[in-house]
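User: Predict MarR family transcriptional regulator's structure from this.
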Amino acid sequence: MPDILGTYLESLQILDRLHRLMLDLIKDEFERLGQGELTPVQALLVYNLGDAEVTAGELRSRGMYQGSNVSYNLKKLVQMGYVHHQRCENDRRSVRVRLTASGEAVREIIGQMFARHAAGLQASGVLDDPALAQVNMQWRRVERYWAEQIRYIY
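Assistant:
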């Protein structure tokens, strides 16, 4: 029987490294283009904001961001002109954010980079066995399990 704890811990380490590598790839892409003003986390936040107009809380729930970092990074993105913010009419405490034209350009750069990577991975056969869709299904199950564990704490 395989060592499930060891395998599980290895998976967690791989996930952490993959996330860090993704941020490094984003950083390198923007440096290559001579656009070093955004941090990789800010650029990923812009990408994940997408076409939507959302609150900071909604954005936090979509991505891999800690609460205070979302507020700080959104403030910086507004100051740099990548994100527009506006107070909600119904709830003046809540702020809705959306991309500006500059933010949409950043989103396009990251989208093109992800598309290049997906095509390269597909061409190399890395994603064939097991199929990426199966891997994603497994990670969604882990995500649900973790979410249930958090609910049981409270």
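The domain at 4-124 is CATH 1.10.10.10 (Arc Repressor Mutant, subunit A).
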